[in-house]
Amino acid sequence: MSAFEMTAGWLCFHPDPSTPRFRVPPGAVDAHCHVFGPGERFPYAPERKYTPCDASREQLFALRDRLGFARNVIVQATCHGADNRALVDALVHSGGRARGVATVRRDVSDDELRAMHEAGVRGVRFNFVRRLVDFTPRETLEEIAHRIAPLGWHVVVYFEARDLPELWEFFTALPTVVVVDHMGRPDVSKPLDGPEFERFVRLMREHPNVWSKVSCPERLSVSGPPALDGEQDAYRDVVPFARHIVESFPERVLWGTDWPHPNLKDHMPDDGLLVDFIPHIARTDDLQRRLLVDNPMRLYWPEESNDGAR
Ligand code: 0GY
């Protein structure tokens, strides 16, 4: 399949991302990315809501090197359902340079959880985005959260900003660290200090176990990608939101490319430009080091982190 060809309406990832102008600090972690298939080897889930372009571990690791990252956190996407084989395969072939977040069902066995831990899984993902998943009862998710907590794992949650009020009680009762994908998907055409984003900020302020990925400007932006070579302008409407979270909670933020960017129809980002977005949201060396190295290391490689006291 050639780059930018549409599969069932979705774009494929950028074939030749630019080399970033921003150099990420040594040891930087891309803390939100996926592997898809290849479908012939790791079939997509029958209950999936989209069929992505294949995006293999080899391609992910090549991108990691090109962008200057040292490690990846690979997150199970809904198109693979609760079949974590492609994820686990990528982890065990990463030479210890990738950790993962899986999706599990309530009937997962202790042996399966232990095997995933051995492979490098350190969290489970609960997805509440209606276009991506069917409904799972909260009690099921609570049960899963209590099963994985003793392993030292955390819960990653993905939801739309408008659903936060209804999910608040569930999130705040979880017994683990809770990592929110893409800042809870704010509507960036609304004011930064408006009630919707303020609610998300309050969630983080009142609950020190809540972390946020300040990722996916390409998904959240209304103003869109830069004009030709105008990287300063890239996704500018997302900058105040991401910057606010980074500066308010520097010890609880993560960043990731979201490669290979599932479900994008109009615009496929240049991953190099996404990296160039980082210094606009994390403006000092210290903030950049926490976002890209210290925080992900503390959460995913605590045994190697020298940041335990923070
Ligand atoms: C993302 C975003 C999306 C998809 C998924 O699991 C998934 O299928 O997370 C999306 O469509 O917004 O983080 O990859």
Number of strands: 8
Question: Which outline best applies?
Answer: globular
Structural class: alpha/beta
Q: Kindly state the mean pLDDT as a whole number?
A: 94
What name does CATH use for the topology?
Answer: TIM Barrel
- Order of strands, main sheet, comes to 1-2-3-4-5-6-7-8
Q: Specify the CATH homologous superfamily.
A: Metal-dependent hydrolases
Q: How would you characterize this protein structure?
A:
With 310 residues, the chain is an alpha/beta fold. The protein has a single domain, classed as Metal-dependent hydrolases (TIM Barrel), CATH 3.20.20. Helix content is 33%, strand content 12%. It has 10 helices and 8 strands. Strands 1-2-3-4-5-6-7-8 form an 8-stranded parallel sheet, sandwiched between helices. The radius of gyration is 18 Å and the shape is globular. The N terminus is likely disordered. The site of (1E,3Z)-4-hydroxybuta-1,3-diene-1,2,4-tricarboxylic acid has 11 residues, from loops. (1E,3Z)-4-hydroxybuta-1,3-diene-1,2,4-tricarboxylic acid (0GY) binds next to loops.
Write the layout of secondary structure elements.
Blueprint: E1 29-33, H1 57-67, E2 71-75, H2 85-92, E3 98-102, H3 110-119, E4 121-127, H4 138-148, E5 154-158, H5 164-172, E6 178-180, H6 195-206, E7 210-213, H7 217-220, H8 239-248, E8 253-254, H9 271-281, H10 285-300
Bound molecules: (1E,3Z)-4-hydroxybuta-1,3-diene-1,2,4-tricarboxylic acid.
